[in-house]
Amino acid sequence: MIKLEQNEILLLMKINTEEILRSRWFLALSIVVILYFFWALGKMAWQNYQVNQQIKGLENEVAQIEGDNQKLSDLIAYFQTETFKEQEAREKLGLVMPGEKVLVFPGNDKNADTSIVETVTKKDEEVKNEPNYKKWWSFFFANK
Asked: What is the average per-residue pLDDT within 3-11?
């Protein structure tokens, strides 16, 4: 008799379980749970995509900064060479090596004296005050 009661209980539980699985509430709850699962999965995938995009952007930025650092390192190395020091001493300070001769060509001086600039400016002002026929005459027949 005890066995029969246990079988009946199991049968009733099986029937109740089948009724629950077939009920509309269970179906609605299952759909909600599945939709939430897919929503959470999609959200995680989107966050993963955004993180990967940020990583790529930062990697590109690192590569660019490393390239800039390499260029700066090359410039520092060049600035420390004797060739650069000699060139700067020649161009900026006007120094020469012992035994060298310097040739100065008129009009090619990059660091022109201000008095020369003032003289040229005064000549330009004088030319502007000349009549037009004198300007044409000097243009065609002046010694160049």
From this structure: 64
Q: Cβ neighbours of residue 78 under 8 Å, at least 6 residues apart?
A: 84
Spatial contact of 78 and 84, defined as CB atoms under 8 Å apart: yes
pLDDT, tens only, 113-129:
555 545 555 555 666 67
Calculate helix-pair angle for 24-79, 2-22, nearest 10 degrees.
Answer: 60
pTM for the model stands at: 0.45
Q: What is the DSSP letter of 1?
A: -
Domain count, the chain: 1
**Distance spanning both ends of the chain, measured CA to CA:** 136
Q: Which domain range does residue 23 map to?
A: 2-141
